[in-house]
Amino acid sequence: MLLPDNLTATPHECGDCPIRHRAVCARCDTDELLRLEEMKYYRSFEAGQTVIWSGDRMDFVGSVVSGVATLTQTMEDGRTQMVGLLLPSDFVGRPGRQGAAYNVVATTDLVMCCFRKKPFEHMMEITPHIAQRLLQMTLDELDAAREWMVVLGRKTAREKIASLLAIIARRDASLHLVPTEGKLAFDLPLTREAMADYLGLTLETVSRQVSALRKDGVIELQGKRHVIVPDFDRLMEEAGDDSDGGLLS
Amino acid sequence: MLLPDNLTATPHECGDCPIRHRAVCARCDTDELLRLEEMKYYRSFEAGQTVIWSGDRMDFVGSVVSGVATLTQTMEDGRTQMVGLLLPSDFVGRPGRQGAAYNVVATTDLVMCCFRKKPFEHMMEITPHIAQRLLQMTLDELDAAREWMVVLGRKTAREKIASLLAIIARRDASLHLVPTEGKLAFDLPLTREAMADYLGLTLETVSRQVSALRKDGVIELQGKRHVIVPDFDRLMEEAGDDSDGGLLS
DNA sequence: CGCAGAATTGATACATCTCAAGCTGGGTGG
DNA sequence: CCACCCAGCTTGAGATGTATCAATTCTGCG
Lengths: 249, 249
Fold this sequence. Notes:
Helix content of chain A: 25-40%
Structural class of chain A: alpha+beta
Number of helices of chain A: 7
CATH superfamily of the largest domain in chain A: Jelly Rolls
CATH topology of the largest domain in chain A: Jelly Rolls
CATH architecture of the largest domain in chain A: Sandwich
Strand order of the largest sheet of chain A: 1-8-3-6
Number of domains of chain A: 2
Number of strands of chain A: 11
CATH class of the largest domain in chain A: Mainly Beta
Strand content of chain A: 15-25%
Oligomer: homodimer
Shape of chain A: globular
Order of helices and strands of chain A: HEEEEEEEEHHHEHHEEH
Distance between the termini of chain A: 39 Å
Radius of gyration of chain A: 19 Å
Largest sheet of chain A: 4 strands, antiparallel
């Protein structure tokens, strides 16, 4: 509100950065961190703000420090599909590419740790730790994208909703490192429309299926956004997945 | 036919390898290639054979030299979704992971250039050229996966078929480096069922939509598999995409 | 208080699935 | 050489899940 373009936000030392051990810089030693500090700056965004427009030139890459953002692609006639959900520690931007390929939108208040692209690219070439970590993260994202292709291509609306809730619950749990045994609870960082864009559904269908899952006791709701999962295995069954994968993998 | 487990196939020198400049080894110098030669071997598979079962332990990684393979994931009740289409030069396997995450099946006769995993992983750590190239390829695959999420989530059956044909046509054209101006022709490397698994449809719907596109003059068929595209822009329109992207990007 | 964005619920339309019946073409054995 | 066979494919008719259009109800906030 106070800043015209959100150019500054509470700066951190990398040392006490909340995503220090999960982000691209996870493997860097203190010397490498020092060099990163020189090219980094923080930006914050309010819920609803667009971070990057598809096609725009990108002169930075960065990590989500706190908050949630979405990656979406839109067809000419307006149909939109979310293709990524960016949670804290996720990386944004593609080294070696000029323009952005997707829209990036903050769905909650968002803080990003940005690096000027040119210096970062240069550092990637001479710092194997960064390239190695980025490769690892990209492979993980590719796996996640492929899981999501199964959801989009083969699951019913109900299974889709259950799958999305399970994913958010799981990622949320892996942040709050205290495993809340038994019941799980979290806030949905997405509107019904954003959920629909993620799942390839309409917002009406999302609303109906959420109601149905609530009526069937799979989830409980406090308000529209706060979700309680009494039995995670039950949720996984509804998602159509093997119930093997524990909360933390 | 002659070999029990297809352990050998016409070996190449890397020097005259058809995928030399596109595969994971694209950036390697002659010295690095020599070291790769030591850990590499060829395997060939007949159309229909399974290369890897999901969950199996993988002791190799490798590149598709010729032919086509698919990456598929199957739900407990048998619903299956293809999550990758592997064409010549594409990479198979994930360094740093024990088991395979997907089924890999040869859909045509297939030749792979395999590297024993342990030595390859070791070489990746000391050879930035390989890791850099692998990162680039993985980022490209991630982009392709995200494009595919739009297809799965938001396109109609007709648009899905047109999109798949466009993708195969484009990748096929980028192999036969002579751009056949005007008309395009190629062989479908997939059965109707495989196309259905790729697109999140049933094989009947695939068949109907292929017939419809043929009746509307968007494509011509010679037999069931040979496709002729008289007007590529028309096909792109049917796919619901911007008609900007040329054949080669 | 009342407005606006978000969400829910209802009625109907329609695209795709499902089940079922043939068709086609290439390979094989008699 | 032919008849048969069978996987792959096509086509049809009816069922069904989700989209669409429309009306209401929530909820937070100025």
